[in-house]
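Cross-check.
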Amino acid sequence: DGVDDYVQTAAGPGITGAQARTVSFWSYTRTLPAASLNGTVVVGFGNAAQYNYYQMVVLPGTGNWNLWGSGYDFYPGISVVLNTWEFHTLTFDGTNMIWYRNGVKVGSGNMSLLNTGNVGYIRIGTAIINPHFYNGYYDGLIDEVRIYGQALSVGQIQQHYAEVLKKHQNFAIK
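Predicted model, tokenized:
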């Protein structure tokens, strides 16, 4: 509801340093973050105390998606589509980041300095960093969060998108 709801695991996914990874999720953003916030995190993992984290963020003002990656951020210029289900997948092969929306590549960049800590947890709906003072809570719905210890291929991403697309097309938001 964008007020105080989120999910946190007891441990992280075991993906550290510059290890390859893929994070995918469905999102339905109701409102953009308040201008007073840095952004709201949809999915993130890592350790804020060590400044080693990996978070997919909706930015205020621009309404763009962003990746915060331990000080090496990725701004692909992808606008949030409000009140619409979107399937996002970010792959990282140890050097390059690729962002896909609905199975189509929409941004890429070099992230060779990315370093995710070896301790921490996964949070869905708010930041790894203290949400009350830093980023608030995501106002929308999040579904089908998946984290892999490898960079998925385009074919695998499109298959995941197709598998769940019908469910989200038929899901009425009230």
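The CA atoms of residues 25 and 145 lie 4 Å apart. The chain is about 10% helix and 40% strand. Passed to J.P. for a second look.
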